[in-house]
Amino acid sequence: MSQPAPQAGATSPTWDPATGGEHADPSWIRVEGLDKVYQPKKSAPTVALSNVDLHVKRGEFVSVVGPSGCGKTTLLKILAGLSPRTKGEVSIAGREVNRPIPEVGMVFQAATLLPWRTILQNVLVPAEIQKLDKKKTLARAHDLLDMVGLSEFKDKYPFELSGGMQQRAGICRALVHDPAVILMDEPFGALDAMTREYMNLELLRIWQQSQATIVLVTHSIPEAVFLSDRVIVMSPRPGRIAEVMDIDLPRPRELRMMSSDAAGVYVERIRKYFNASVID
Predict the structure, then answer these.
(1) Reduced to 3 states, what is the DSSP secondary structure of residue 278?
(2) Quick one: where's region Disordered (predicted)?
């Protein structure tokens, strides 16, 4: 069951439904007619994405699944402003995305923490780059580390933490500048099964507390169903959206729901697109 739509007073100043008229676009993330073509100098062009349309509401948790090479990470990089699009329109919170914007936080496949900086110092990196108020961002960094159970490790270095703890620190870093949107590229792929399940629950808790919009790329269909309000199913390359699936499971979600019959119906429906469970 999707989260309720935000009230008018909680929306971005770049889009006001109170003045936008009857047909105002409620999308927080808007992608229309998106193409991405890689054009190497010495080989034929590769079409990574073709005519992708995607609208995400504020506060939604949306996952993207599909076979390897279908353009999931490419889509995320374009949303993050890290890769140029070939054609189409992309906007977040009413702002056209042509380069990285402060409304977006990114969590990568690996935590990518700077080894010479402490955990607290790593979390503060986006705030330093954006030259945000030091006192406020330091307080927020402490609050975030406390929220994910890393307060006592704030002065440790990355090599002193487990993989799951490093990834939690990476999520804090993505949240420290209070972004409206968090983009996550297979953040739990390298974790063992038990740690991954714990991080799923941790991510839901962080999402509920931060009220951010999350777009998660994952190869795990059960994970996508368990976490999401909607699942975007992508076709093999060139990547297109095959289906946008509403996940009607109650919130708050409990881990046992991942293996429930209700979740299983969605999992099997998605698997049929790939005729196997190889992307699990």
Answers:
(1) coil
(2) 1-26
DSSP letter for each residue of 194-227: HHHHHHHHHHHHHHHHH--EEEEE-S-HHHHHHH
Q: Write the DSSP string, 128-178.
A: HHTT--HHHHHHHHHHHHHHTT-GGGTTS-GGGS-HHHHHHHHHHHHHTT-
Walk across the sheet containing 46-57 and list its strands: 46-57, 27-38, 87-92, 95-96
Q: Which residues, at least 6 apart from 171, have a Cβ–Cβ distance to it below 8 Å? A: 107, 148, 182, 187, 203, 206
What is the pTM for the complete model shown? 0.83
Q: Which residue has the higher pLDDT, 139 or 237?
A: 139
* CATH annotation of 27-103+186-277: 3.40.50.300
Q: Which of 164, 175, 232, 169 is nearest to 201 (CA)?
A: 164
Q: Cis peptide before 238, with omega less than 30 degrees from 0?
A: yes
